[in-house]
Amino acid sequence: FGSARAPSPEELSDKELFGEGRNKNPKLAKYYEATRMLSKKLTEWSQHFDNEEQKHVICSGGGPGIMIAANRGAKEAGGKTASLRISLPFEDAPNPYVNEELDFEFHYFFTRKFWFSYLAKALVIMPGGFGTLDEFFEILTLIQTGKIKKNLPIILFGKEYWNKLINFETLVEFGTIDRSDLDLFFLTDSIDEAYDHITSSLSS
Q1: What is the pLDDT of residues 116-143, one digit of tens each?
Q2: Who's near 162: CB < 8 A, 6+ residues apart?
Q3: Could you say which of 4, 69, 117, 134 would form a disulfide bridge with 36 (CB–CB 3.0 to 4.6 Å)?
């Protein structure tokens, strides 16, 4: 999950391209690249299981920004990649890196979120807006309340962004969550740490 407004390096270097569409902040560009590299590493890892063509498939919301970076990284690794899209007037087609047979479109957000959470083996939450926050907190709520019982590693990527946005310690201080609830996700700035956390969790 992550912002649809994250620019790629190509967009940053092309002023005409960068000036089109919704505002894109250069601060998000590093998360585009981190998403692409992590997706590529995870896809390469997933292609090396015995007797399996590709055990896990990178899936995004199918749109631009962080989503395209996720699908792009998987494609660059030679893997299949999926999208669960939502019907929006400004995102009417999947990004070009999604496998056609793995592109699914939803009308309702709640149906789409169900399939994201039901099928997911791990989640990576990059900096994003209201939609990303909604998805992140709903998943946390489902795990905290026992509605999701499976092992589901969650990476919260981008310490600067998330620590500025949410003071998780305040939730503990006021007793609205237990300190152990902070263990439901892993906060990092490192592609290697995120990769190791996911692969070790899925291999155990």
Answers
A1: 899 999 999 999 999 999 999 999 999 9
A2: 127, 156, 187
A3: 69
